[in-house]
Amino acid sequence: MTAFLLLEPESPGAAWAPWTGVRPLAELRAGAWRIRERWERALGVAASGILGAHVEAFVDVDAPRVLAAAPDGAFLAASWFAPAARDITLGPGVRRLTHEGDTVACIIAPGVAPCLDDEGPSQEIAGVRVSGAHDLLRALELLLGPDCAEATGGVPLPAGTIVLGSADRVVSQGAVVEPGVVFDVRNGGVVLEAGAEVRSGTRLEGPCWVGAGARIVGGFVRGSVIGPRCVVRGEVSSSIFLGYANKAHDGFVGHSIIGHWANLGAGTTTSNLKNTYGPVRLEADGLRIETGRTLLGSLIGDHAKTAIGTMLPTGTIVGAGANVFGAASIPKHVPAFAWGCAGERLSEEGFLRIAGRVLPRREVDLTPERAASLSATYRRLA
């Protein structure tokens, strides 16, 4: 394998809002792991890059480069498919991997533009096809339990913690856990990565994954993955915090996805169930998206912010860099870089200025390269 690359859709469209043009789909979480990481674990090799024009110039803390071209013979894997297995061994002569008959990975034929074609011997693999951002919640429901079950490397919990269920289902890989924390692992394991911190007054109900350096500072977290360097407090249910986000106060977040560097003001609450108990529709770019889900909260983009006391309706999309304030009723779709809910827009200069204040709070510098990446995002979405 000369190179392993993740292939993005040519134009992800409204179904992937609010991350279309902002973040590679490969860098979104399906279960405990990002889709790119799931492929790396499955193939046993690190990705060399990402092919995706919709996120040209994207740079992040540990993401591979976005490339303009791929070498002949490279192995391509779909950014919209999350493999369930790890350590996949390709059989003799196998050129492509399939899921339910669809090609999800293949070796690029010489002289052919990068694509997932249907030519040559194949091998079927298990996993979850993700058709839009909301589908990451289905992947969470299917994959988080097994992810937690296979985690290893735990150390004993300190005295004073309470475990409901088998104590070996709590895997602390070097986290700081205060006395008084309750772990309910009767329905799934709880994994705490190195450097995570869980403070007294917290109840974690498995399956639940807390990433490296994340801090849970109180409340009830169940069925969720909390990405690295997040700060979380309050009630969180069946949700994904991608990483570096802040929810340091009370408020309910359910069946929601919270982007990188997002900040939820005190008391921000998501509705995840319609009064009719019917399926939830999303709205983005003037389109309605049928999710088929009864439980769906909010999709909150990278660098978005909500004011204190914000109440988000069922199935709300908050665009990247948006600042949500000043409306008694929040619209179902808050556009990227909105400044309030009255049609004003945050300037590119203002967006970069705020990012320059926020990133160092997690010991990340706004380098010229990162600033250029954020500027490219702003201009794509302008």
Fold and architecture overview:
This protein is an alpha/beta fold. The chain has four helices and 36 strands. It has helices at 35-43, 135-149, 348-358, 368-381; strands at 4-7, 29-30, 33-34, 49-51, 66-67, 75-78, 81-83, 96-99, 102-107, 122-124, 127-129, 162-164, 170-172, 176-177, 182-184, 190-192, 197-198, 202-205, 208-210, 215-222, 225-226, 231-237, 240-241, 246-247, 252-254, 257-258, 263-264, 269-270, 281-284, 287-290, 298-300, 305-306, 311-312, 316-318, 323-324, 333-334. The strands form eight sheets. Strands 12, 14, 15, 17, 18, 20, 22, 24 and 25 form a nine-stranded parallel sheet that branches. A nine-stranded parallel sheet has the order 13-16-19-21-23-26-31-34-36. It is globular. The mean pLDDT is 95.
Features:
382 residues; alpha/beta; single chain
Short description:
With 382 residues, the chain is of the alpha/beta class. It has helices spanning 35-43, 135-149, 348-358, 368-381, and strands at residues 4-7, 29-30, 33-34, 49-51, 66-67, 75-78, 81-83, 96-99, 102-107, 122-124, 127-129, 162-164, 170-172, 176-177, 182-184, 190-192, 197-198, 202-205, 208-210, 215-222, 225-226, 231-237, 240-241, 246-247, 252-254, 257-258, 263-264, 269-270, 281-284, 287-290, 298-300, 305-306, 311-312, 316-318, 323-324, 333-334.
